[in-house]
Amino acid sequence: MRRKFFALMYTIECGNHSRRKIAAPFTAFSEQGNRRFEETGSLEDRQRSGRPPLRAASVHVVQSVIKNMAAETSKGSSSAREAERRTGIPEASIRRILHGMLDLYPYKIQRLHQLLPADTDARQKFATWALAQMERNPQWLLNVMWTDEAHFSLLGDVNTQNSRIWATSNPREYQSQPLHSPRVTVWCGFTASFILGPFFFEEPCPVSGVKTCTVTAARYLTLLRDHVVPALQERHALPVVTFMQDGAPPHISRDVKTFLLESFTEDRVISRGCKIQWPSRSPDLTPADFWLWGYLKSRVYRGSPTTLVELKNAIRLTVAAIDGDMLHSAVMGVVTRLTCLLSCGGGNVEHLLL
């Protein structure tokens, strides 16, 4: 009677023409319920196969274990695999809890250039001075020439962290790496509007014609005297450019320092040992380091050069393709970094800008 009553109510609401469509599913449901009740003594669904639902208790357990693991390390790191070992909860479920329920995301530990205790004061002093210069002369930063050298190995680098081969069995792929890969040493200098270079440090070789050589004070001075200063004179930029270099030993020799001061004057040279001191261990403040070299290598190695000649040509073409907008954007990034540096007491800024 109870079953017929509910079927009648659904029929009245939907019309007589729907009687069969409504009564039949209801009858099937009632028969299933009756059979379940007769077999189990309960109307609750039987336990289903497959992945069990994530319960609140599991969330609290995972949250507690992750917190404990983070407290055990100096960097506050943790591992989903280790949490699986400690809790018995599958790693996939742990990741669903961390991301879907606790709104946590995995972040890599960043590697930063180590600073010594005295470096923070020097960095703050330089940042304060540079920002004051920009306040007095908005064009000053645009006329700073940021210079540096970098090595480009012929084989480049393989990012094994992000390189994966999906296969049904381990293909045992590897890349052999020689102890000393052939490489070139490149110098570049740029302002917000133009770039000089690339210039390669090399010398004649009876076997291959030329070979890469070490950057010494004499070779660096030759580069400045024979290439850099004449190129600035051609552009009529020598009277306004401020020359910046880091404190590498070849940069701060007596002869190099004398030549720079004669060419630019002491108020337009930023370097260790000069009136305007470049802070030591500060690659995060110069766009040559935080932008140029990474950008060049990401483009140069796409073509997979197989000889040093091909590598140098790829570097030349990539540098030639850099336009003024890219240079201006990179240089203006210095302002953000200097401002951030002052707010964090002279410490590293790379991890704060990601």
What features would you describe in this structure?
The structure is a single chain. With 354 residues, this protein is an alpha/beta fold. The protein has eleven helices and seven strands. The protein has helices at residues 2-14, 19-40, 56-72, 80-87, 91-101, 119-136, 217-234, 254-264, 287-300, 308-320, 324-343, and strands spanning 144-153, 183-190, 195-200, 202-205, 209-212, 242-244, 269-270. The chain is elongated and about 100 Å long.
Write a short abstract of this structure.
This protein is an alpha/beta fold. It is built from eleven helices and seven strands. The strands form two sheets. The protein has a five-stranded mixed beta sheet with strand order 3-2-1-6-7, sandwiched between helices. A two-stranded antiparallel ribbon has the order 4-5.
Quaternary form: single chain
Measured by DSSP, the beta-strand proportion falls in 5-15%
| CATH architecture classification name of the largest domain | 2-Layer Sandwich
User: Treating each run of at least 4 consecutive H or I residues as one helix, how many helices?
Assistant: 11
- Could you tell me the CATH topology label of the largest domain: Nucleotidyltransferase, domain 5
The dominant shape is: elongated
Q: Helix proportion of residues, in percent? A: 40-55%
Strand order of the largest sheet: 3-2-1-6-7
The CATH class of the largest domain turns out to be Alpha Beta
Largest sheet: 5 strands, mixed
Structural class category? alpha/beta
Q: How many strands appear in the DSSP assignment?
A: 7
Number of domains: 2
InterPro entries: RNaseH_sf
GO molecular function: nucleic acid binding
Protein name: Transposable element Tc3 transposase
